[in-house]
Amino acid sequence: MTHNAAAPSRKPRRRGLLAPFVILAIVAIGWSIGWLWLRGQAEQRMDATALSLKSRGYDLSWEARAFSGYPFRMDVRLVNARVAEPSGWALRAPELNGEANAYDIGHWVIVAPRGVIMTRPINGDVQITGQALRASFAGFKQYPPRISVEGANLVFTPVAGAAPFPLLSAAGLQLHLRPGPDDQGAIFFEAKGAKARFTGLLGRVAADRTADLVWDSKISKISALHGASWADAVGDWSDAGGTLTVQQGRLTAGEALLDAKSGALTVDDDGRLRGALDVTVREVPTPGQALKSPEAAAAAVAQALGRDPTLSATLKFDNGRTRLGLFDTGPAPRVY
After folding, report:
1. For residue 6, how many C-alpha atoms fall within 13 Å in the half-sphere facing its CB?
2. Does the pTM of the predicted model rise above 0.85?
3. Residue 151 pairs with which residues in a beta bridge?
4. Which of 171, 200, 217, 268 is deepest in the core (most CB within 10 A)?
């Protein structure tokens, strides 16, 4: 007898269909737990850093702190943040917004949307505002860490009663601090389209023109740059034999030029620069401006005779004074 009845069909296995969603849910839960753990780590690191700095006379504080950015970022917002060192230098910001990737909370990008206020120990506060002001921090296990600061269309405004600040404004600004081999650190500073109020030789070269500035240098014995205050840190660094080697220092303002090509600097007991730089100088007085120095007069005579008005000389910082060749151009720059 032939059996023609069809065999009953098998029901699909729901376990196989649900497996990918179960795995996804487990991953999501694990990632969420990991993000919360990272947030706790970020809070603990910030609190521990603040306590460590306070024990050494520094200050890192804020009125309010909030974390966000789940699931792939770690964002933090600080209200009325302040960082200060014992000698009186400080930065305050009404608002700071920080961001790091959740998988790399050792690399932070900080934005100050409402600008910052810089406190100078003697000369008072300067408000810094602009179209953009941001900083990047990484490599905290190195000394110095990797720090970059960038700004666009910045304006520097001393508060009421404060002394003038050398920079009035800058169309673009960059500051980079990097660690190097053999206990070295590197500093690179650039300001483009800057209006400045310099004194001495820098003031004569820049005059009232828009200027571009570049400073590229290396610091030896960087690990010795520690102390209870900025003055103590620089003093200890100087006593350890630390030097500032200039790779390039350049100020251009129209046709005027001050170019430092090489040289090594230290700091004397009064906190002023000491050492020598090989420089090229071209002073070009603005229309109606009197010649304010013998070297400027010599450059003007050379220009009138159809010769190159550029002067190559040695810029010396010694005994608290700045000398360009045989000419005394004013006090040596003060570091502290």
Report:
1. 3
2. no
3. 133, 173
4. 217
Tallying the residues shown for the chain, one arrives at: 336
Task: Give 219's contacts (C-beta < 8 A, 6+ positions apart).
Answer: 184, 185, 186, 187, 225, 242, 243, 244, 245
**What is the rounded CA–CA span in Å between residue 72 and residue 27?**
14
Here the tokens at position 293 are 């120095």
More confident residue, 219 or 25: 219
Where on the phi/psi map is residue 193: left (φ > 0), alpha (ψ -120 to 50), or beta?
Answer: left
- The answer on pLDDT for 294 being more than 80 is no
- Pairing status of strand 116-120 against strand 124-129: antiparallel
Find out whether 184 and 241 touch, Cβ atoms under 8 Å. no
Give the span between the Cα atoms of 225 and 243, in whole angstroms.
Answer: 11
56-76, pLDDT tens digit by residue? 677 888 999 998 877 777 888
Question: Burial, 141: exposed, middle or buried (Cβ in 10 Å; 0-12, 13-18, 19+)?
Answer: exposed
Enumerate residues 6+ apart whose C-beta is below 8 A from 153.
130, 131, 132, 169, 170, 171
Residue with tokens 């699931």: 71
The closest of 253, 162, 268, 183 to 212, measured between CA atoms, is: 253
DSSP, collapsed to helix, strand or coil, labels residue 333 as coil
